[in-house]
């Protein structure tokens, strides 16, 4: 998989996506999430692939093991590079997800969402009723994902060093919650700059609004890409 920043294509229509992508004349790594996929369906995937881009299909599956396993068999037939589930679905659900995917495809990587980067520690305690620190809660999910045979996790860049220590350097750490210095935080809580994310051990960063809502998306993408790729990993 490319190491380039993964651009979150959080648009509602195919037309918006295509006009956004038309500004770029290079292969990208893009993320298609629920907002887009539920509007356009799988047809858009082939169109984006035909442009030479890698695709992270971010549907965050979370259901009973049988349903997730069957759904993954379906996703395995799509032309994507990375898919995901919620670790909160449990070990058996994650194992069935891997089995379903591998039945039809050996190449697509599969990762688990640990805790959404929009979740604060207070919400973790008060709403999810998980009474450990955020770090411990995330590490627990990362270790379960590794034991279940997944390729990595989605996590905050603030948690990657700890996950690398326990799950290894090769275990993918895909991190949203990225904001260049002085840009709007939006609804993200646990954020870092692209440079900090690399220094902390992220293997991939996901960036949405700082690029998609920018007045100059290509320029913003290149600034973020340079700071990400040029920073040294500790
Ligand atoms: O616009 P922004 O850079 O905040 O976009 C981040 C993207 O990463 C969104 O598409 C969001 O759904 C996704 N994401 C996240 N936190 C997670 C998992 C995915 O923000 N833990």
UniProtKB/TrEMBL annotation:
Enzyme Commission number, as recorded: 4.1.1.23
Enzyme class: lyase
A Pfam family annotated for this UniProt entry: OMPdecase
Known catalytic reactions: orotidine 5'-phosphate + H(+) = UMP + CO2
Pathway participation: Pyrimidine metabolism; UMP biosynthesis via de novo pathway; UMP from orotate: step 2/2
Annotated ranges, domain Orotidine 5'-phosphate decarboxylase: 4-224
Top-rank taxon, per record: Bacteria
Catalytic residues identified in the record: 58 (for ompdecase activity), 60 (for ompdecase activity), 60 (proton donor), 63 (for ompdecase activity)
CDD domains on file: OMP_decarboxylase_like (cd04725)
Annotated positions binding substrate: 10, 31, 58-67, 117, 179, 188, 208-209
Similarity section: Belongs to the OMP decarboxylase family. Type 1 subfamily.
Quaternary structure annotation from Swiss-Prot or TrEMBL: Homodimer.
Name recorded for this polypeptide: Orotidine 5'-phosphate decarboxylase
């Amino acid at each position: 998989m490319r190491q380039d920043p993964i651009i979150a294509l959080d648009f509602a229509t195919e037309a918006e996506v295509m006009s956004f992508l038309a500004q770029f004349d290079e292969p990208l790594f893009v993320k298609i999430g629920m907002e887009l996929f539920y509007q356009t369906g799988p047809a858009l995937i082939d169109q984006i692939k035909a442009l030479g881009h890698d695709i992270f299909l971010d549907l965050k599956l979370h259901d009973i093991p049988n349903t997730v396993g069957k759904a993954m068999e379906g996703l395995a037939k799509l032309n994507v590079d990375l898919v995901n589930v919620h670790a909160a679905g449990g070990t058996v659900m994650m194992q069935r997800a891997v089995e379903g995917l591998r039945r039809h495809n050996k190449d697509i990587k599969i990762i688990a969402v640990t805790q959404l980067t929009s979740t604060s520690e207070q919400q973790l305690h008060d709403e999810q009723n998980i009474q450990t620190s955020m770090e411990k809660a995330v590490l627990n999910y990362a270790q379960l994902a590794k034991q279940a045979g997944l390729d990595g996790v989605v996590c905050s860049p603030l948690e990657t060093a700890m996950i690398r220590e326990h799950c290894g350097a090769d275990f993918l750490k895909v991190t949203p919650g990225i904001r260049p210095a002085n840009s709007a935080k939006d609804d993200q809580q646990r954020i870092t700059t692209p440079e900090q994310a690399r220094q902390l051990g992220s293997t991939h960063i996901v960036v949405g609004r700082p690029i998609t809502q920018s007045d100059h998306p290509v320029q913003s993408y290149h600034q973020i890409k340079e700071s990400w790729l040029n920073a040294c990993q500790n």
